[in-house]
Amino acid sequence: MTDPVTTPDPVEQQKIDTSVPHSARIWNYWLGGKDNYAVDQAAGDAYTEVFPGIVAIARSSRAFLRRNIAYLVSEAGIRQFLDVGTGLPTAQNTHEVAQGLAPEARIVYVDNDPMVLAHARTLLYSSKEGATAYIDANVTDPGRILEVAAKTLDFGRPTGLILSNILGHVADYEQARSIVATLMEALPSGSYLSVNDGSRGIDPVFEQAQDAYNNSGAVPYNLRSIGEISAFFDGLEFVEPGVVSVTEWRPEPGSGTPEVVAEHGGLARKP
Question: Given this model, what pLDDT does residue 8 score?
Fold first, then answer.
């Protein structure tokens, strides 16, 4: 989006359903953003009444993503990113971190929420040296994602695939694994996969709150075991320390002993 649009398309605005809570807007609310509605705030508050720790999970997830991207740019030399399920723009978005370290970096964001689309067009604009683009597509259609992303990214060069808190929205686990495999298959050796998702088996209060949310009529988000999250990386080479609680993945020096949260993720290289 080197030429940002300042006014969302009225047709797109009409598609935004403000009568039911939406996970991207609730996540934005927990991160301290302003791009949410009363229905999202109510749902977010109801969730935090059961499990106040969700705010820490949301912010820890964002910090994990930032550290992943910084590693990929500074240590792995990655200059291309495909961020699927980007959600609403907040602070430290993928292109901001990547282009802050390497202005020539190219980023393609993917989401299929009309509110995300409207905000992406106004906020996700690139450095002059690099490129930032947005694809209106569903994670369940990896073929379309790859086809359109190829207009901005060169899939002959190593690419960082970002799947942050999106695979939990794919109810069928085998389908989620197939999506990851299809996307990674299109990327060359030296590419990386970054995944983080809410995890089961760590915090029963979190699980109770998420199950209640899933039964509320909102779009469900499925927590998965650490083993299931780890299996998304099959065939890849983990960057140490592998799949861990997001707070434990290469924490900033001097940040103290990280608190384990029920959100696990990792980063791995395609051989």
Answer: 33
